[in-house]
Structures are given as C-alpha cells and as structure tokens.
Amino acid sequence: MQSTAADQIESIISNRLHVEESGFDDETVITGEKLDAESLDIVEIAEAIDGELGVYLTVDDIEEMQTVGDLKSFVASELEGN
C-alpha cells in the first residue's frame, strides 16, 4: 500500500517530535502545546519533507503555517505543481 503525502507528513512530524500520530490532527498548531515544535524541530521537519517528498520548504514557510493541515495543504499544492 502506497502512503500519501499527508501520511508521510504525519509520520515525519510524529518521528521528529516524538508524538504519537493519534496525538495530533490537521487542526493542531505546529508550535502549540501538543506538538511544541521549536526552531530545530522545524528545520528537521523541513529537511525530512524535502528528502522524502522532494518539496523544499524554508523555516519561514513552516513558521507561517499555523497548523498541521496548513503544512499538508502547502505540500500537496507543491506536489501538484511539479
């Protein structure tokens, strides 16, 4: 079974932030209490998305996104444009 980009993003966030995938959803704020992503975490998430999905994100791109859903939407739109 092939995983979707959304599934891969959830896995990346879960692995980098040591949070169960069931512990967050599309409405979860990336830098909020549940995920508590700091600058280094955001850099690692951006690098993993680039490496696994081929979508380059700057730290500023991710910091401008409020929620996990925003991140998924941005990556999906970038993948559709490629």
Question: What would you note in describing this structure?
Answer:
- Helices cover 59% and strands 0% of the residues.
- The chain has one domain (5-81): Non-ribosomal Peptide Synthetase Peptidyl Carrier Protein, Chain A, CATH 1.10.1200.
- The protein has helices at residues 5-17, 39-53, 59-64, 68-81.
- The mean pLDDT is 91.
- The chain is mostly helical.
Blueprint (SSEs and pairs):
Elements: H1 5-17, H2 39-53, H3 59-64, H4 68-81
Helix pairs in contact: 1-2, 1-4
Please tell me how large the radius of gyration is.
Answer: 11 Å
The average pLDDT score comes to 91
CATH 4th-level superfamily: ACP-like
Gross morphology is globular
Output the number of helix runs: 4
CATH architecture tag:
Orthogonal Bundle
CATH class: Mainly Alpha
Q: Could you name the CATH topology?
A: Non-ribosomal Peptide Synthetase Peptidyl Carrier Protein, Chain A
Number of beta-strand segments: 0
Count structural domains.
1
Q: Please summarize the sheet with the most strands.
A: none
Helix content: 55-70%
Beta-strand fraction estimate: under 5%
Which secondary-structure class do the elements indicate?
mainly alpha
The rounded distance between the terminal residues' Cα atoms is: 23 Å
- Please mark out the parts with pLDDT under 50 across 5 or more consecutive residues, or reply none: none
Order of helices and strands: HHHH
Pfam families: PP-binding
Domain Carrier: 3-79
Protein name: Carrier domain-containing protein
InterPro entries: ACP-like_sf (IPR036736), PP-bd_ACP (IPR009081)
